Amino acid sequence: MFEVYTEEYIRNRLLNRISDSLSKMEGTILWEIMNSVTIESKEIYSEMENIYNQRIVSTATGDDLTAVCKDFFGVNRKTATKSAGTVRFSGTNGTVISSGTIISTDNGLQYITTATGTVASGYVDIEAKSVNSGFANNVAIGTVTKLVSTISGITTVSNITAMDSGTDIEEDEDLSNKIDKSLKILGDKGYAGLGKYQLTIPIKRNKREYKKDKTLAKTNNQLISRKRIKIEHVFAYMKNFRILQRLNYYKMNKIELFFQSIANIYNLSKF
Predict the structure, then answer these.
(1) Is the pLDDT reported for residue 153 higher than 90?
(2) Which of 166, 236, 237, 258 has the fewest Cβ atoms within 10 angstroms?
């Protein structure tokens, strides 16, 4: 978890770096300068926290969560969909209903025809869809009854099927929950013990385990290797940070912060 320090903590750290031979009491010029630096530093920490949180599934929201799920897990957010159904136009035979004709409900929900039709035997049935996406556009039979623009020869209009299948955009919580279900760990026998987390662990197989089909073994290994190489690249990137070579000097909470910070630097470098 990213740690955001309080202004008091930041200010004291800055003042403690200054020699005690100088006056650092509140109200002095030195204190005022350090206080200004403190305020700016606090804002920077807050922005860093926001960036950090927007790269993690459990804390990211909106477009940031969409990007994290897609780019790192291959999981897409379900988009909002439009409702659809069949609308009957009744009137004079030979009257043409053009594709793109707009009809609506009493409360203003609008639908648009997706095909052209001609009245015969007193009516014509044409498919239509909602102008806007979302669940709110799902309505019952007989509720789409108004022509937005008058059509000569048409006396009545009404949907003869429910206008349905409209859905809202997937909520953040539902999208996040899909990650848990789709998550897979690419590992080998050196990652023993992950089974307790109920995660799928594709293990790279030895050809001898596919005695009857060596081609399958080779193909399987190549597919896994192509995915794992991305992880190996991250490990190689992390090794460039010297601080990870001195982990025995730090407490566990600091070590965790180092790894999280470097991982986020790597993630940000890819955007």
Answers:
(1) yes
(2) 236
